Each structure stands twice: as C-alpha cells, then as structure tokens.
Amino acid sequence: MENTDVIMVNEFCASHQLQISFVHSLEDHGLIDLVFVNQTVCITANDLPKLEKMTRLHQDLAINAEGIDAINHLLDHIDDLRHEITDLRNRLSFYEEKDIKAEE
Question: Could you tell me the pTM of the whole model?
C-alpha cells in the first residue's frame, strides 16, 4: 500500500479535535481497520468516509464507540432488508408479468 492511500491517525485526530483513543476503540469494535506505515498508525483512504461519519456521530450526538457499533449494525440490517425488498419486488413483478401474458 502506498503512503498516498493512507491518512495518519494523529493528523486526522488533530484536525478533527478528536482523541486517538476513540479511533482505537472503533478499531477494537471492528468498525474500521488501522494500518501501520513506517511505524505510524494510519487509516486507509477507503475507510476515511466511514471514520468521518462516525466522528460526526461521536462529536455531534455524543455517541460512544459502543453506540456507534450498534447504530452501524442496525444500518447494515436496514440495508440488507432494502436489498431483500427490492429482490422480492423484482420477483413479484416477474410473476405478475407472467400472469398477464397467460391471460392474453
């Protein structure tokens, strides 16, 4: 991984006025992945939007890492349900079209 693909955690925390321990607690809960580059703790650019969203939840709503973990789990579940609903609607539409053609 190149250095351009990562952001140093201490710089992120300084720019967002955030404690580094919060970022580590997010990693402990499996919400983000931290990597080491030249013995420096970094976050991948891919995880940056997720970390920024979690930082806003923490700072704006005073939600701790455990709460963010629960929110993330619920949002993932909602997303799964949306996909399931879309799949079921597509399947239902297929059978409705089949019935219409059979009636003709």
Answer: 0.77
